[in-house]
Amino acid sequence: MFSLQDVQRRIAAIIDTARYVGINYQKLGHAVLFMEDSIESQWWRAHRHTAEHYQLSPIKRADDDAIMFTLVNMAQMWQIWERTADSDVRPWHFYWKKELFIGASGITAAHMRALKNGCDLLNPDYLSNLQLSSVENIYRDDHTGVASIPNLRGRLAKFNEIGRVLSNEFDNAATKLLERARGFLYRDDGHGLIQLLAYHFPISFGDFPFFKLANAGVVFGLLGLRDSDLPSTHEFVRLTTFNDLANLEGGADYYRPLFLLRLGILEPNHSLRKTLVNSTPIERDGKMEHEIRAGTLVALRKLTERIGSFPVYLFNVEVETHAQAFLRCRHCRVGISDKDLFCSYKPICAAYNTNHELMKIGWPLVETTSY
After folding, report:
1. What is the pLDDT of residues 283-294, one digit of tens each?
2. Which residue among 223, 247, 271 closes a domain?
């Protein structure tokens, strides 16, 4: 079993030996000056009712079912992109009836539809016995009749694993997983929540040392429910009270690096820049991918520390950096007007102002089940 120190040492080692990515701390400091006001405005809320359905959630009450839905839903938040007929890359598009859902909201919408149609995704026994044909139906687009989300077999493996492990190890209940963690993300005996997720669910959450779906998925998902205005059970509040949130990390995915690269906070070398401009797939678990992800985690932590205190402001920085890339950066172009696309960071954006080649870069594309 890995320890918190193992995680920290590995991330530090990746940064110390990095050759593809550097961190520009001067640019990071400039971004802080704009980020505070942007976070305060909560501008992204206007996109809750657009096709992106940003931060979509069907949960109406923070209880045992909310914990289970968060576990199942967040396990599937990976490779939510697709190539179009002309080989362009875009976020996954999903129609439920006549309504379009773009990106992560499509995953959530597909699970919402499945539950409404009688698929008991909150039942570990049901998940254990799920078949590929059922997974295809879960993600089938109502407009095209096709399940275009990548790697359906990988998604089946995660559904099956969650059901099987909860049945065999945790008395058929996601709450038992949190009970065993006893309010910690990391414990000396290896029973912290991040450790339990990675050890018992290696297909779904094993992603050493980044653990994106465990950190930014499950933990942030639960904390978001706690901090919402939803009614909560006492049990939910007890189980989601963590005593070591300073050990929480951000989400090392593909949207946050895009934002950091465009601003000039993450500085790619020639090889990585060429890879990103050409939308060339990056080797999974290779040095290039690890450097991008480790650099992203370090930058998110430094941004959070400079804006306020860590981890209090980490959730805000997480949302801000993801939303900027998803809702703004991917639509941006050099010279675009504020009327067509307002962005608080235009005055300091390297891609917009000085290094126009950065405007051509896309996401770091990795065919992975980790993010």
Report:
1. 999 999 999 999
2. 247
